[in-house]
Design goal:
This protein is mostly helical. It is 47% helix and 9% strand. It contains 16 helices and six strands. The strands form two sheets. It has a three-stranded antiparallel beta sheet with strand order 1-3-2. A three-stranded antiparallel beta sheet has the order 4-5-6.
Length: 438
């Protein structure tokens, strides 16, 4: 219903009395207060007449919040609640207020523990469902928000916007690269246009201090450029240099300045794939000796995220699935806290570089071969170790739950009979000569 506080104050007061009538009848007092309140708002960009939620959508938001918080979930005795849509705030944000009487109909008092966390998760789901801008930093993620306009430009039906696709490519190529020049060449080889950002003149006019990327093959009017830090805070050039200990010199500056320089990983033979899988198995055994409370697990999670991001780009394309979900969850788990800004330990080499290069050559169509599945099994073993370490750190989080879900989907992937049709051929040619990885 719509009520005007200027002319319908009596009706509004009656709603308040109905909200509290049962509590007064029961004589129930709550020392800490019997009213729970919060507001849910949209950013100004999603509060325009063209994009704002309608009444039915706001109703869905309110009911979803009451359900996830357990106030009116169809299981427990319900609480009385009301949602008030005030329209725009002074700052231009469309918003609603939710008020709940914590005394349930049966007289019990509802619990409010972890309400903020539950609402954060719900808001993340609603952002995706209604194609709203994603709030930066929700959970531990530092992915930049995607506006509704970007989702609309992507065309819908599960296709991801350029910003998300580019973030997957950049994060994977960074793990694969030997150094900064190789990073630039490999980005171009992966279908990404790259342009450098130079420092302020005159002292730093020849020093690359940042970069921006766009998908190749688009016209000037269609192309959208994103700075590395606008994809994800961890993908800014200073952070990449710090993380991988890249040394920026004249060689790197020359490559940044020459758009024609690119590198495309050569396809691997079956023998090379098995070689990478065997090295990955050895790596898993070495990782078992890393103490579960070692900060190195954060670095490992970030490297595996890059490996799966590259694999996802090859086989899931613009429609991210389990591989992309696992990569995103691992990236969130790898993200340093504000007090953990240390780069990769010198004793922690990038053991996943060769595996990342292999991931970048997975066939774009068809099912993975048995040799590729063998490598995927080793990656899944590493993911299990990462989960154990995260739990040991008491870092159970939404990202950890998402990682577990994605790992389960990838395990199912291995069991599909269709994926094993090439195993006989793989065994026949396994001993043939082939090309390795540089």
């Amino acid at each position: 219903m719509r009520l005007d506080y200027r002319t319908q104050s009596e009706e509004i007061q009656q709603l308040g009395r109905e909200m509290d009538a049962h509590r007064k009848l029961l004589g129930k007092e709550v020392p800490s207060g019997h009213v729970w309140h919060c507001s849910i708002s949209l950013p100004p960009g999603d509060s325009t007449d063209e994009r704002k939620l309608n009444d039915a959508e706001w109703e869905e938001v309110a009911k979803a919040a009451m359900n996830v918080l357990g106030f009116d979930d169809g299981v427990n005795s319900p609480c009385r609640w009301i949602a008030v849509h005030h329209g725009k705030s002074v700052g231009g944000n469309e918003h609603i207020h939710l008020a709940v009487n914590l005394v349930r109909e049966n007289g019990r008092v509802a619990r409010t523990g972890h309400d903020r966390t539950k609402l954060q998760r719900l808001c993340a789901e609603l952002e995706e469902k209604f194609e709203l801008s994603v709030v930066e930093g929700r959970g531990r993620s530092a992915r930049r928000g995607v506006s509704r306009a970007e989702w609309e430009r992507a065309g819908g039906e599960g296709k991801e916007p350029d910003r998300r696709w580019l973030a997957r490519v950049v994060s994977g190529v960074a793990v694969m690269a030997q150094d900064e020049p190789d990073f630039v060449r490999s980005l171009r080889g992966a279908g990404v246009d790259v342009r450098p950002k130079f420092g302020d003149p005159p002292e730093r006019s020849d020093v690359v201090v940042g970069y921006s990327v766009a998908r190749s093959g688009q016209g000037p009017e269609e192309r959208l450029w994103f700075g590395g830090g606008n994809l994800d805070r961890e993908l800014s050039l200073p952070r990449l240099r710090e993380r991988f200990r890249w040394v920026s010199g004249s060689d790197a500056a020359d490559v940044w300045a020459r758009p024609s320089e690119q590198r495309v990983p050569d396809p691997l033979t079956v023998r090379a794939w098995w070689s990478v899988s065997e090295e990955a198995a050895d790596l898993v055994e070495r990782l078992r000796n890393v103490p579960i409370d070692d900060e190195a697990w954060r670095v490992i999670a970030g490297d595996v995220a890059g490996v799966l991001a590259l694999w996802s780009i090859r086989v899931e394309h613009d429609y991210p699935g389990a591989l992309a979900a696992a990569a995103e969850a691992l990236a969130d788990l790898a993200r340093p806290r504000h007090e953990e800004r240390a780069p990769r330990p010198r004793s922690m080499p990038n053991d996943f570089r060769k595996i990342a290069r292999a991931s970048a050559t997975v066939a774009r169509r068809g099912h993975p071969t048995s040799d590729q599945l063998a490598l995927l099994r080793q990656i899944l073993r590493v993911m299990e170790l990462i989960e154990v370490a995260q739990v040991a750190h008491h870092r159970a989080s939404d990202a950890l739950g998402r990682l577990n879900d994605a790992r389960s989907q990838l395990q199912i992937l291995q069991l599909r009979p269709a994926l094993r049709t090439t195993s006989r051929t793989s065994r026949m040619v396994r001993e043939q000569g082939g090309q390795g990885i540089e």
